[in-house]
Amino acid sequence: MKKTGTLYLIPTVLAENTQDQVISPQVKETVQHLTYFIVENLRTARRYVKSICPELVIEQLKFVQVDKDASPAQVQASLKPLLEQGIDAGIISEAGCPGVADPGAEVVKYAHQKNIKVVPFAGPSAILLSLMASGFNGQQFCFHGYLPIEKRDRLQALRQLEKEMQQRNQTQIFMETPYRNNKLLEDLLATLHPDTRLCIAANITSPEHEFIQTKSISQWRGKLPDIHKQPAVFLIYK
């Protein structure tokens, strides 16, 4: 019986030039022996592999892009080398842990359907690191991804998150496209109850620019940080 390849979930950095601090030797040793990668973004994945394993010749490696717009056929095709040739593969997200708020989850789902062994490695997750640092409920929490773009829908979504927070005693976690961060902060202050607590976690793991603070909505008034175009996670809790 033909041996099937293994699918390794390769965590990446959240902040540039932090691979020596946050990426384990186990990840680097695994990447050294892989020749095939399924990635969210070709350019950032190639750059990341070169940063943790500079001895590898990138031109000799194969990278296949599976992003949020990938079709089921593309997802299935990405795993053919594992099924037909027994080649091992690594999944690489654009940032953080693959499969978590990441299109790599579809590849992993199909891998399980085909009985491909899946091996996750520990690495930095903006969602978990922000929750750890927030002081909020870590027993019950919900990640909502990106909020609606349209202002009316976004304000309605924020009111609903605050309602769920109260009813379920649940930390609510969400993100925004970095260039809309400051606008989201204005909406949070205008919409949420003054006593609701907001944690702003930006540039997580960056030695120089990391910003993580928790205050009530009323305490944030007039003291909001400028996090325009900076990767950030937002959390609310009572």
Automatic annotation (TrEMBL):
One of its GO terms (biological process) is methylation. Residues 45-214 form the Tetrapyrrole methylase domain. Pfam families: TP_methylase (PF00590). Keywords: Cytoplasm, Methyltransferase, rRNA processing, S-adenosyl-L-methionine, Transferase. GO terms for molecular function: methyltransferase activity. This is SAM-dependent methyltransferase. It comes from Pontibacter anaerobius.
